[in-house]
Write a structure and sequence with these properties.
Distance between the termini: 32 Å
CATH architecture: Alpha-Beta Complex
Number of helices: 2
Strand content: 15-25%
Radius of gyration: 14 Å
Shape: globular
Order of helices and strands: EEHEEEEHEE
Largest sheet: 2 strands, antiparallel
Number of domains: 1
Number of strands: 8
Oligomer: single chain
Length: 120
């Protein structure tokens, strides 16, 4: 089955490729960790149609939750850049801090990614 999204039509093969790069845990509160390619900023990357690279957490949101409206960013409740758990992802209008400013104060700058964790 194909699903239309901002990243284009996602085929069953692409979805299978994407899901194969996620380490899931039985506890739905834990992070689902991205094991694929990573950007220099520590976010997961996934190649979609036409060899375009998209942030993996945006692809995860579109596959597991739905469309990302124009002018919205996908953020992590758990503050872990490699988390793909749709329960940890949410939409918000962009703010100046979302460009990386203010991440040190939030304790999210240059932080290593621990194994899955319980997150509420």
């Amino acid at each position: 089955m194909e699903r239309q999204s901002r990243v284009g039509t996602v085929t069953a093969h692409q979805r299978d490729r994407f899901e194969a790069k996620i380490r899931r845990y039985d506890d739905p509160r834990r992070c689902w960790l991205w094991t694929g390619a990573k950007s220099s900023t520590g976010y997961g990357n996934f190649v979609v149609a036409d060899n375009r690279t998209q942030p993996a957490h945006r692809v995860a949101f579109q596959l597991f939750v739905g469309r990302i409206p124009a002018g919205r960013v996908v953020l992590h409740r758990c503050h872990r850049r490699l988390c793909m758990n749709p329960r940890h992802l949410y939409l918000r209008k962009p703010r100046h801090q979302d460009s990386g400013h203010g991440t040190t104060a939030a304790g999210r700058h240059a932080k290593s990614e621990p194994e899955g964790h319980p997150s509420d």
